[in-house]
Design brief:
The chain is mainly α. Among the domains are: about 90 residues, no CATH class; about 240 residues, no CATH class. It is built from 27 helices and no strands. Helix 7 runs antiparallel to helix 13 and helix 9 packs across helix 25. The longest helix has about 35 residues.
């Protein structure tokens, strides 16, 4: 039987020819690959390939390889050295990155322990009794994500492990759960004064003559993307609809209710009975049946407290620094490793005293946790290396020249332009913090941050960076959200994009308004009203499309 030559195959071939043609033309014309638009080519190719082929590892590697070729001038030896020595090895050897990898492994081991002890199953049973609706499950996920605002790595994996059984019970797809996790990670961290993100932003303005923390707080009301993302999640939950690619995975409320009713009738039992039957079939370890909700809640609470103390410790709190100063000077990598390590030790002792697990079972959780995190670790390493390739080509300097070129001609539009540039740069590089580092120093030299428009522009930098990071398939936040919900990474990217682009479009309009009227008391209510109005319009359009598709 002959296979049809589909649109996807044609798209891949056209994409490959376009990339080859670009490289050949660039090499033949003697183009300057560094400090020019060519510097953004590797991430653009990696992202494009990932979206077309639905295969993230090879797409990232091809982007890395092209970055190496451009940097070395198509030298074989130079490419090899730059890709592996300056790229992979340097990225993995970086102390901050190593700390994040250790944190992932320890967190994976803690989650494996909670599952073995029966804490997750017990929480699932409790949630089935107390969270009655799909809307309630979404709101619970949003609330937990907002509460865990200290760091986005911690947020993604913790919210995912806790809320997965609740989402599954109420028919929330892994793709929708991934979106909720991702949308309460970076967007919440960037408007939380006590967080690793606030510390990072404060660090980028430390030589400007003003308090970084004070500037961060003043910029919060103008961070339209972060605020409107939360508004959008609430609208989706209360209005009970989805649109774009998400509709493929999220059935309508009526369909979902019918599917659940049919399943219950077919199996002749309530959901609680189904859970018990599933446990009888799949859980042979008696300790799981004896698990209690406290076996999940207590480790999570200890993890939160330990990570906060770890970050304070890394910032010098126990050496006399204040809380705010300690968070500003904290190293999230060190703090999270210390916190997760202490939590792992606590959990081991606690489960042994509770006699829900044997020591051998506890120790086997370490390799299990590592195995569970391997896909996320691989993608992170590839993403970090691609980021290194992009920065080595001078992407920062190129973007800086673009901003300086536009500053005199479009002063009123500058907040919107900065937001857009931040989106594109973070999307291409997969890093919001790197984007802060590039754009914020440029912004504070263009406009004094003592003026209202200067604060709006700094906020636009942060909002654009978070937006691009939120959309990018090579962003570590996006990768962690996929891992936290146990969702296919490309599916998460594709389903999230329409939602993120909607908020970005409304935010862009709001930054135009803020450029004219730099007063958050006026602009913020207008922005929220615009977002809610946009959601009503989209819901009506989606409702009209539904009968046609049926």
């Amino acid at each position: 039987m002959k296979k049809k030559f589909g649109k996807s195959a044609i798209a891949k071939i056209v994409f490959a020819f376009a990339v080859v043609a670009l490289l050949v033309i660039g090499a033949a014309t003697g183009a300057e690959f560094q400090f020019s638009a060519w510097a953004l080519l590797p991430p653009v190719i990696a992202i494009g390939l990932a979206l077309v082929t639905k295969e993230v590892y090879s797409s990232l590697f091809i982007g890395i390889l092209i970055g190496g070729l451009l940097y070395s001038g198509f030298s074989f030896e130079g490419t090899l050295v730059h890709v592996f020595q300056d790229g992979f090895v340097a990225s993995v050897a970086d102390s901050y990155n190593v700390g994040i990898l250790i944190f992932l492994v320890l967190l994976g081991a803690i989650v494996a322990l909670m599952n073995k002890a029966g804490g997750s199953e017990a929480f699932g049973r409790w949630a089935s009794e107390h969270i009655k609706t799909k809307t309630g499950a979404q709101l619970a996920t949003i609330a937990l994500g907002v509460l865990i605002f200290i760091d986005y790595y911690f947020n993604c994996l913790t919210v995912g492990s806790v809320m997965r059984p609740v989402a599954e019970k109420h028919g929330i797809s892994k793709e929708k759960l991934s979106y909720l996790i991702d949308a309460t990670a970076a967007p919440v961290c960037i408007i939380a004064p006590v967080s690793s993100w606030a510390a990072a932003v404060a660090g980028f303005v430390k030589d400007s003559g003003v308090s970084g923390f004070s500037l961060f707080v003043r910029a919060i009301p103008y961070n339209f993307y972060a605020i409107l993302t939360i508004v959008m999640m609430l609208c989706l939950a209360f209005m009970k609809f989805d649109y774009g690619y998400m509709r493929k995975f999220e059935p309508s409320t009526a369909e979902n209710a019918k599917q659940k009713l049919d399943a219950m009738v077919k199996r002749q039992g309530s959901f609680a009975e189904q859970i018990e039957a599933k446990e009888e079939d799949t859980i042979k370890d008696k300790s799981r049946k004896n698990g209690k909700v406290v076996d999940l809640v207590l480790p999570i609470v200890v993890l939160i407290i330990a990570c906060v103390i770890g970050m304070l410790y890394s910032g010098g709190f126990f050496e006399g620094s204040g809380i705010i100063e300690s968070f500003s000077n904290s190293d999230a990598s060190v703090g999270l490793v210390l916190g997760s390590a202490c939590t792992f030790i606590f959990v081991v002792i606690y489960y042994l005293l509770r006699r829900v697990l044997k020591f051998a079972d506890i120790m086997s959780s370490l390799p299990e946790g590592f195995k569970a995190m391997v896909p996320a670790i691989l993608i992170l390493v590839f993403a970090w290396t691609l980021k290194a390739m992009t920065f080595s080509l001078g992407a920062q300097e190129y973007v800086e020249s673009v901003i300086y070129g536009a500053k005199d001609a479009l002063k009123v539009m500058l907040p919107a332009i900065i937001f857009l540039v931040g989106c594109l740069l973070a999307f291409s590089t997969g890093t919001s913090w790197g984007t802060f580092g590039i754009l914020i120093p440029i912004t504070i030299t263009v406009f004094p941050i003592t003026t209202p428009i200067g604060v709006v522009c700094v906020s636009a930098c942060m909002a654009g960076a978070v937006c691009g990071d939120h959309c990018s398939p090579i962003s570590d936040t996006t990768i962690m959200a996929s891992a936290g919900a146990d969702c296919d990474h490309i599916n998460h990217v594709n389903t999230q994009l329409p939602y993120a682009i909607t908020v970005a479009a409304v935010s862009f309009v709001c930054y135009i308004i803020a450029g004219i009227i730099p007063n958050w008391l006026i602009v913020l209510p207008v922005s929220i009203a615009l977002m809610i109005g946009t959601m009503f319009v989209i819901r009506n359009i989606a409702a009209h499309k539904e009968p046609a598709e049926a």
